[in-house]
Design goal:
The protein has 145 residues and is mainly alpha-helical. The protein is built from 6 helices and 4 strands. It starts with a strand and ends with a helix.
């Protein structure tokens, strides 16, 4: 289950945050859209990472919302823990959100080394390919950040 929070007060070390200003205006728009998707998905059934990728990869013209939803629904499975996602409009950025923004940014910049480093740092080997596919798909379908 995705933990959607109002803002941070006393978060564990794993969830240290920064502010949206550190990522730029386009990144803030993207993050707020992903936060909105996460908010809508929080009571929905979790999506299996492998099944989500199999369905999406066979449907090339799927709207960007479908990729964002698949990413946010399967993120917990890929990370092995519920990601901390703040409500849309909150200026703080959780560790999980910052990691996701950096992964999308490096994918968008075609920085393969940094992208693989980010995936390997947090995602078990069995989930890397599928989560990488979803992140790359979201990076291609959303505005430049």
């Amino acid at each position: 289950m995705i933990a959607v929070k109002q803002s941070s007060t006393a978060l564990p070390q794993r969830h240290s945050e920064t502010t949206l200003g550190a990522f730029g205006v386009d990144a803030a728009d993207l993050l707020n859209e992903l936060r909105q998707v996460a908010l809508a998905c929080r009571s929905a059934a979790r999506t299996d990472l492998f099944e989500a990728c199999a369905v999406l990869s066979q449907t090339p013209n799927v709207a960007r919302a479908a990729y964002a939803e698949a990413l946010m629904k399967s993120l917990e499975q890929a990370l092995g823990t519920a990601p901390v996602v703040y409500r849309p409009g909150v200026q703080e950025v959780s560790f999980d959100e910052a990691w996701l923004l950096r992964a999308i940014t490096t994918a968008r910049a075609d920085d393969r080394s940094s992208f693989l480093f980010l995936l390997r740092a947090r995602v078990p080997h069995a989930s890397r390919r599928n989560l990488g596919f979803l992140i790359l798909s979201v990076s291609e379908r959303f505005s430049k950040i």
